[in-house]
Amino acid sequence: MAADHSIDAARWRAMFDQAMARIAGRFKRVEPRATARAFVLALLSGVERKNCWRLAEHAGHSRPGPMQRLLRSSRWDADAVRDDVRAYVLEHLGADDGVLIVDETGFLKKGTASAGVQRQYTGTAGRIENTQVGVFLAYASSRGRALIDRRLYLPDASWCQDAERRTRAGVPDQVEFATKPTLARQMITGALDAGIGASWVTGDEAYGQDPGLRALLESRAIGYVLAVACSRRVRINQGRTTARADAVADRLPASAWHRQSAGAGAKGPRYYDWAWIEIGADRHRYLLIRRNPSSGELAFYLCWSPRRVPLSELVRVAGTRWCIEECFQAAKGQVGLDHYQVRHWTAWHRHITLAMLALAFLAALAADATPARAAQPSRPIRSTGPIDLTVPEVRHLLGALLNPTNSSPRMLLHWSNWRRQHQATARRSHYRRRLASPSTG
User: What average pLDDT does this structure show over 243-267?
Assistant: First the structure.
């Protein structure tokens, strides 16, 4: 193993014990505490589909009941565990260059009973689908990135104003309609109040268009680089006139553009042409413009900082926004963020929170195994030796180091029979319902 890569099975087990000890006090009884540990351990396993049935089978349980109770009826506070996850991420990934990133992701669903589900646009599918939408906050630094908060978006007319539907899905009475930028403001405020040491916030157009979010960040002296539409009007000429962002870009001379990298991508540095102009009169407010060198496509960002910063700093923060997309990909692909089969409000938040803990643990292991990365975030590509440990590779290694299989042939057959029996019951129920109402479907 290369000298700057440290894989120590005993240390990784100890770090897992420490991570679970951090949340142990949130569970007053021994059974849910042990089940939560088994749940997270199974999320970190190579189980293909991480729902309660599969997680229970992996844990060596004879039925999914304990896992289902953990998500639905056991007494524990998912928001308190969320606070523990946030503190854990800061402890292991915190750095001076930390950035908070806000974005949303969709969870495709069937039916109408899952909390917050309706036909709505989701970037996950790139179109309108029957889906739940979660708004998330991520923290990213040179040491790694992880999700630190979450909110389930509850549509107004179809959910917030339907008392019967809310009751069936377990939506608390105090939950009211909130726009996605409002949910973002809540999460950012919570992170800052908790001591998250980030100097910047970034997000896409859905959040850049919200004046309340920008005002909040300025009042907290937190800089921002937030995407906006090309039609956004900005103040130029020291605030004396306004113009559309795309019209401003069209008038820029060739000397205004600077080619810089927005960070490392899967295939190397992500180079774009960048331009910036001061807007307003306080000399800390900018319109940042990104141009694709190949296609000429433009993107626009409203930027503010409590102090003067170079263009390279704004470019760095703008490029950091993609870290949350990588978090979504890793969380869904590695720890089953979207594998749940629950409908209840509480169960959704509990599953998501435990998946966030699993992802944070993977990110902490990756950072711990490559300590030189924090000291040299821009070190050149090595000509020999392996790349730094990635979250997927760490998760793969954990399958052998922390997750020895509990499945004997007898247990495998038990679960096969159990699943097929329940599937038969469900099939009979569906057939009876269809036969009773032959005109439907």
Answer: 91
Three-state SS for 241-287 is: EEEEHHHHHHCCCHHHCEEEEEEEECCEEEEEEEEEEECCCCCCEEE
pLDDT mean over 223-231? 97
Q: What is the mean pLDDT of residues 66-72?
A: 96
pLDDT at 3: 39
Burial of residue 107, with CB atoms counted within 10 A of its CB: 0-12 exposed, 13-18 middle, 19 or more buried = buried
As given in the structure block, the two tokens for residue 58 are 């992996």
> In terms of residues, how long is the chain?
441
User: SS3 for the chain, per residue?
Assistant: CCCCCCCCHHHHHHHHHHHHHHHHCCCCCHHHHHHHHHHHHHHCCCCCCCCHHHHHHHHCCCCCHHHHHHHHCCCCCHHHHHHHHHHHHHHHHCCCCCEEEEEEEEEECCCCCCCCCEEEEECCCCEEEEEEEEEEEEEEECCEEEEEEEEECCCHHHHHCCHHHHHHHCCCCCCCCCCHHHHHHHHHHHHHHCCCCCCEEEECHHHHCCHHHHHHHHHCCCEEEEEECCCCEEEECCCCEEEEHHHHHHCCCHHHCEEEEEEEECCEEEEEEEEEEECCCCCCEEEEEEECCCCCCEEEEEEECCCCCCHHHHHHHHHHCHHHHHHHHHHHHHCCCCCCCCCCHHHHHHHHHHHHHHHHHHHHHHHHHCCHHHHCCCCCCCCCCCCCCCHHHHHHHHHHHCCCCCCCHHHHHHHHHHHHHHHHHHHHHHHHHHHHCCCCC
Residue 407 has pLDDT above 80, yes or no: no
| Domains of the chain, first to last | 77-341+367-378 (3.90.350.10)
Q: Supply the pLDDT for residue 140.
A: 97
95-111 pLDDT per residue, tens: 999 999 999 999 999 98
pLDDT band at 269 (very low <50, low <70, confident <90, very high): confident
pLDDT at 378: 43
Q: What is residue 421's predicted lDDT score, i.e. its pLDDT?
A: 77
pLDDT tens-digit profile of 159-174?
Answer: 999 999 999 999 999 9
Based on its alpha-carbon atoms, the radius of gyration of the chain, rounded to whole angstroms, reads: 24
Mean of the per-residue pLDDT values of the chain: 89
What's the pLDDT band for 352 if we cut at 50, 70, 90? Answer: very high
Q: CA-to-CA distance for 170 and 11, rounded, in angstroms?
A: 41
| 259 strand-pairing partners | 273
